[in-house]
Design a protein that fits this description.
mainly alpha; rod-shaped
Length: 81
């Protein structure tokens, strides 16, 4: 039965199977790349949020220092009167 199938058809089916496997591997690889990209973006967004929070805390400290008539030292990061 298989011998009745011409060689060209068998080669074509083998090539199609190879292309199908190659496409599946390429899609799997791309999904891994996308997952890594998403994790990297989440990490950067988290660090950005932490930096914004830290900057706001320092800004409040500076504002409070000036409100009580103090002088903020950028070198030491402290308020002096």
């Amino acid at each position: 039965m298989i011998a009745a199938i011409p060689l060209v058809w068998r080669l074509g089916a083998g090539a199609a199977l190879a292309l199908l496997i190659l496409a599946a591997v390429a899609l799997w690889r791309q999904s891994l790349i996308n997952d890594g990209w998403d994790r990297a973006l989440q990490k950067v967004e988290k660090q950005n949020g932490q930096a914004v929070d830290a900057a706001r805390r320092v800004q409040r400290s500076v504002d409070e220092c000036y409100d009580i008539g103090g002088l903020w030292s950028q070198i030491t990061g402290q308020c002096s009167r």
